[in-house]
C-alpha cells in the first residue's frame, strides 16, 4: 500500500498549481527588477571616445555644413583638434601623432547643421608605420550618449584609402582643396 500523498494547500485550491507557478514567476521578476535598480549607474562598456566632451571649446571648424553621401546621407561639419589645425589648413607636413579630425553628424534635413548632433565620426593620427592596415589612423563612430559604436571600421578605411594625394584630399582626409 502506498503512503498517502500530502498536497500543499495551494494545490488544493481550484487552479492551485497554476497560481503557484504564477506566484513563483512574479517573485522572480520582482527580484530581477530589484537587482536592476535605475538608481545604480550603468557600467561603462567598451572603449572611450577619443575626443573630449568639451571639444567645442578648443577644436576649430575647418569645413562648414555639407551633405555627406559617405556618411549615410547625413550633414556634417568637420572640426580639427589644436594639433591637427595647422597641417589641415596649410596642407603641408604630416599630422602630429594624436592629431584628430572630428565630423559632427546631423540629420539630412538640417541644411545648416543647426539642429541636434546625431553622432560623431573621427580619425586620430597614430605614429607613422604603426598601423598601415588602418592608414596609421584610429577610426571611431560615437553616438550621442558618447558610446563608441565602431572602432577601426573597414568602411572608413576603405573610403579614405583613395584620399591620399592633394588632388583628392590630404593625408587620407578626403578634404578636396578649396
- What's the helical proportion of residues? 10-25%
Helix/strand structural class: alpha+beta
What is the N-to-C order of secondary-structure elements (H for helix, E for strand)?
HHEEHEEEEH
Structural Rg: 27 Å
**What spatial form do the alpha-carbon principal axes imply?**
globular
**Which assembly state applies to the chains in this document?**
single chain
Strands, total number: 6
Mean pLDDT: 78
N-to-C terminal Cα separation, in Å?
99 Å
Q: Main sheet?
A: 6 strands, antiparallel
Strand content: 15-25%
Q: Which regions have little confidence, pLDDT < 50, spanning 5+ residues?
A: 5-13, 16-20, 23-43
Number of H- or I-type helical stretches: 4
Largest sheet strand order: 1-2-3-4-5-6
What attributes characterize this protein structure?
alpha+beta, 178 residues, 6 strands, 6-stranded antiparallel beta sheet, single chain
Question: Could you characterize the architecture of this molecule?
Answer:
The chain starts with 8 loop residues before the first helix and ends in a 17-residue tail after the last helix. It contains four helices and six strands. By secondary structure, the chain is an alpha+beta fold. The chain has a six-stranded antiparallel sheet.
Amino acid at each position: 500500500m502506498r503512503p498517502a500523498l500530502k498536497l500543499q494547500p495551494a494545490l488544493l485550491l481550484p487552479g492551485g498549481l497554476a497560481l503557484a507557478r504564477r506566484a513563483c514567476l512574479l517573485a522572480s521578476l520582482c527580484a530581477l527588477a530589484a537587482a536592476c535598480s535605475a538608481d545604480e549607474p550603468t557600467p561603462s562598456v567598451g572603449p572611450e571616445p577619443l575626443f573630449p566632451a568639451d571639444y567645442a571649446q578648443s577644436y576649430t571648424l575647418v569645413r562648414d555644413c555639407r551633405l555627406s553621401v559617405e556618411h549615410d546621407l547625413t550633414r556634417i561639419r568637420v572640426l580639427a583638434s589644436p594639433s591637427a589645425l595647422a597641417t589641415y589648413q596649410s596642407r603641408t607636413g604630416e599630422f602630429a601623432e594624436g592629431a584628430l579630425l572630428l565630423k559632427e553628424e546631423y540629420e539630412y534635413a538640417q541644411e545648416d547643421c543647426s539642429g541636434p548632433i546625431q553622432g560623431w565620426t573621427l580619425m586620430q593620427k597614430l605614429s607613422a608605420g604603426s598601423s598601415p592596415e588602418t592608414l596609421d589612423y584610429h577610426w571611431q563612430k560615437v553616438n550621442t550618449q558618447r558610446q563608441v559604436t565602431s572602432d577601426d571600421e573597414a568602411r572608413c578605411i576603405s573610403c579614405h584609402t583613395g584620399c591620399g594625394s592633394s588632388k583628392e584630399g590630404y593625408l587620407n582626409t578626403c578634404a578636396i582643396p578649396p
